[in-house]
């Protein structure tokens, strides 16, 4: 005898919604926007309901990756035989002006390897060099001082301080530069935050708004602005588009492409192929090892 089962499936992945669901409800800004059979809401209509604006093309062609600097460009990151609880004997290089994707499912070690470059995970062996200098591993302040900015995997526990405002979150890594004697000048803090709000197109009432009042996509942009606040030469992005809508996904990936065009080295860790399309190279991890490498295209 077959037992009937009802399930609630929560996702931003629109293809899966159409594949497994019969009815879909769209929530935006804590309000129910629409409920309808999935057959009556094609992808474009779903995007418009989720974002509140025109959808544009759902799958834009992958931008062509510019030529890598290769031997002519300086090596910004050198990882030599790095090992830890989740990865083993990993060696790689990352050049200035290059975007390298690191692909891997949960348990592959890819997230922990990215976190190790940012000081969020302490390896047990091996060596990391940033801009030609050894990095003291397992230390976020050391990584920041070395020129590494990071968008961590979980914005709620590692990327943002929910009790603080948009401006306080964005400027936290550079608070010591915002006034004399360690005192923060609110005008300097808010000016820096407004520039980031404009550049990343963060939808907010202003710098003083609590970060918890923003949508998930805008919270992720605030976390990205925080990663960029120190003007890092190396940018580590771990699952940068997790839990955001289609429009925010495009905006966040555009920020990564701009960072590469500005000469920063970008490591983009993701299990989403769409996130990796514009990378110059993609390394694949499984079981803690780098198992494959692919050039763009």
What's this model, at a glance?
By secondary structure, the chain is α/β, with parallel strands linked by helices. The protein has helices at 14-20, 43-51, 110-117, 140-146, 155-159, 166-171, 186-200, 216-228, 246-261, 273-276; strands at 23-28, 31-37, 75-83, 90-95, 99-103, 125-130, 133-134, 148-151, 234-238, 265-270, 281-286, 289-295.
Secondary structure layout plus pairing:
Blueprint: H1 14-20, E1 23-28, E2 31-37, H2 43-51, E3 75-83, E4 90-95, E5 99-103, H3 110-117, E6 125-130, E7 133-134, H4 140-146, E8 148-151, H5 155-159, H6 166-171, H7 186-200, H8 216-228, E9 234-238, H9 246-261, E10 265-270, H10 273-276, E11 281-286, E12 289-295
Parallel strand pairs: 5-10, 5-11, 8-9, 9-10
Antiparallel strand pairs: 1-2, 3-4, 3-6, 6-7, 11-12
Give the CATH superfamily of the largest domain. Answer: P-loop containing nucleotide triphosphate hydrolases
Gyration radius, in Å: 20 Å
- Amount of beta strand: 15-25%
Structural class: alpha/beta
The description of the largest β-sheet is: 6 strands, mixed
In which range does the helix fraction lie? 25-40%
At CATH level 2, the architecture of the largest domain is 3-Layer(aba) Sandwich
> How many β-strand runs?
12
- Major beta sheet, strand line-up: 8-9-10-5-11-12
Number of helices: 10
C-alpha termini separation: 50 Å
Number of domains: 3
Q: Spans with pLDDT under 50 lasting ≥5 residues? A: 57-64, 66-72
User: What gross morphology would you assign?
Assistant: globular
CATH topology group of the largest domain: Rossmann fold
Mean pLDDT: 89
SSE ordering: HEEHEEEHEEHEHHHHEHEHEE
Oligomeric grouping of the chains: single chain
Pfam families: ABC_tran
Domain ABC transporter: 72-296
Region (Disordered): 52-72
Organism: Streptomyces iranensis
């Amino acid at each position: 005898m077959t037992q009937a089962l009802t399930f609630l499936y929560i996702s931003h992945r629109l293809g899966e919604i159409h594949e497994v669901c019969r009815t879909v409800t769209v929530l935006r800004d804590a309000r129910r926007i629409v409920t309808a059979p999935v057959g009556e809401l094609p992808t474009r209509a779903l995007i418009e309901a989720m974002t509140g604006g025109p959808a544009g093309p759902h799958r834009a062609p992958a931008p062509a990756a510019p030529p890598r600097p290769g031997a002519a460009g300086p090596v910004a990151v050198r990882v030599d035989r790095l090992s830890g609880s989740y990865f083993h004997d990993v060696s790689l290089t990352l050049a200035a002006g290059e975007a390298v994707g690191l692909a891997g499912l949960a348990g592959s070690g890819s997230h922990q390897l990215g976190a190790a470059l940012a000081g969020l995970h302490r390896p047990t062996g091996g060596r990391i060099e940033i801009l030609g200098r050894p990095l003291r591993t397992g230390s976020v302040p050391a990584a920041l001082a070395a020129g590494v900015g990071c968008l961590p995997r979980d914005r709620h526990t590692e990327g943002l301080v929910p009790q603080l405002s948009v401006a306080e979150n964005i400027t936290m890594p550079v608070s010591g530069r915002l006034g004399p004697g360690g005192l923060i000048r609110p005008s300097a803090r808010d000016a820096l935050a407004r520039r980031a709000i404009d550049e990343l197109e963060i939808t907010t009432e202003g710098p003083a708004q609590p970060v918890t009042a923003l949508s998930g996509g805008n919270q992720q942009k605030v976390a990205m602005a925080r990663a960029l606040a120190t003007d890092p030469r190396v940018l580590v992005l771990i699952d940068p588009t997790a839990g955001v809508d289609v429009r925010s996904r495009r905006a966040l990936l555009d920020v990564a492409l701009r960072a590469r065009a500005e000469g920063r080295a970008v490591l983009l860790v993701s299990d989403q192929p769409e996130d990796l399309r514009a990378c110059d190279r993609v390394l694949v991890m499984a079981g803690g090892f780098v198992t494959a490498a692919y050039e763009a295209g």
